[in-house]
Amino acid sequence: MFTDFGFKNVEAAVKNGLVQDVFKSVASNYDRMNDIMSGGLHRYWKRYFIARLPVRQACKILDLAGGTGDIAFGILDKFNHLEPNITLCDLTYDMIAVGKDRAINKGLLHNLNWTVGNAEST
User: Fold this and answer.
1) Separation between Cα atoms, residue 86 and residue 19, nearest integer Å
2) What is the value of pTM for the model shown?
3) Could you give the angle at which helices 93-106 and 70-79 cross, rounded to 10 degrees?
């Protein structure tokens, strides 16, 4: 079986590895790339999304494709008084590693859990 990957058709069995390779190669520049590609608009989208979340006291949040942690950090910034427990899941360890470093730099050491996984797997 074949599936789309960019402008190519690839075997479905190899697509996951190709996607991982892309994100491994851009992890250290991912946030800057988002700013450039969206003209900074992705920051507005994330704030809009976070502002509408129904966060409750000590709730558990799963951030799939959590990448470098932007959404999780935004949730903690806005709702830290409610002590949400956030698990970030991303396809590559490289993205998670960048996110962990960012969390340390922001002093966000509690209520964050990190895991590598494929949100599309069944």
Assistant:
1) 24
2) 0.89
3) 30
Q: For a pLDDT cut of 70, what percent of the chain falls above it? A: 99
How high is the pLDDT of residue 122?
Answer: 58
Q: Yes or no: is domain 29-116 CATH 3.40.50.150?
A: yes
Cα torsion for 13, 69, 38, 52, to the nearest 10°? 110
pLDDT in tens, 53-78: 999 999 999 999 999 999 999 999 99
H-type helices in 1-122, by residue range?
12-26, 30-38, 41-51, 70-79, 93-106
With beta carbons less than 8 A apart as the criterion, state whether 115 and 104 touch. no
Q: What is the pLDDT of residues 10-49, one digit of tens each?
A: 998 899 999 999 999 999 999 999 999 999 999 999 999 9
- Determine how many CB atoms are found less than 10 A away from the CB of residue 93: 16
In the chain, domain spans: 29-116
Please tell me the distance from the alpha carbon of residue 92 to that of residue 50, in angstroms, as a whole number.
24
